[in-house]
Amino acid sequence: SYELTQPPSVSVSPGQTARITCSGDALPKQYAYWYQQRPGQAPILVIYEDRQRPSGIPERFAGSSSGTTVTLTISGVQAEDEGDYYCQSADSSSTSLVFGGGTKLTVL
Amino acid sequence: QVQLQESGPGLVKPSQTLSLTCTVSGGSIRSGDYYWSWIRQPPGKGLEWIGYIYYTGSTYDNPSLKSRITMSVDTSKNQFSLTLNSVTAADTAVYYCATVPHSAMEVNSYYFDYWGQGTLVTVSS
Question: N or C: which end of chain A has fewer CB within 10 A?
């Protein structure tokens, strides 16, 4: 089955830039999406179609894509950005949707 | 803005059937604007897509769960439902309902824009 690979954890100091990667063989052909999940809450979509930001999501959240890796970049990280981040995409045939294992972002 | 609310038993015995309903407000299932989806998250673990259904009844399932899943829509109640049979402890999770925009799927884009708050289902005797 298709898999997306994320680092388990990323730590940054407030005001710094956090980068979370997600790798998958089908990512050159399929869009990637990113979700933020704070403890005890439902996920929130923060990036769709690789780099598009839904309304209400701060400009410090940005997505990019290069080959089989997509990256979520959070510039000027704030304490409220702490939480788990999941990438999501579809397999090459678009028949199955898959999430990455999640990355815990810690703001030091 | 669409709002979603999951409901169902919080405790299910092993080998029995898990049944959940998602009630939609702020929009009509019959509008065709969304595919209606289920996602779960075992305690302390990551997210897993279960499947989604269109108002016409067309369904798309996670192959790993396909044989145990049934999804349905009730347009008269503006609800959609999930049943998962032959449950085990591995099915213990927070179950979320969510939406996938139909307009996005037409351009090969599949993302979950609205989510319910989730409901914890524990499988235990």
Answer: N
Helix (H) or strand (E) holding B14: none
Distance linking the first and last C-alpha atoms of chain B: 39
**pLDDT tens across the length of chain B (125 residues):** 999 999 999 999 999 999 999 999 999 999 999 999 999 999 999 999 999 999 999 999 999 997 899 999 999 999 999 999 999 999 999 999 999 999 998 888 999 999 999 999 999 99
Residue B12 in tokens: 């299910």
> Residues A92, A98, A101, A106: is their CA dihedral positive or negative?
positive
Among B5, B110, B115, pick the best mutation site for testing chain A contact (most A Cβ within 10 A).
B110
Chain B residue numbers touching A52 (CB-CB < 8 A): none
What sign does the dihedral B41-B119-A40-A35 (CA atoms) show? positive
Contact status, residue A22 vs residue A28, Cβ threshold 8 Å:
no
Residue A16 token pair: 């710094």
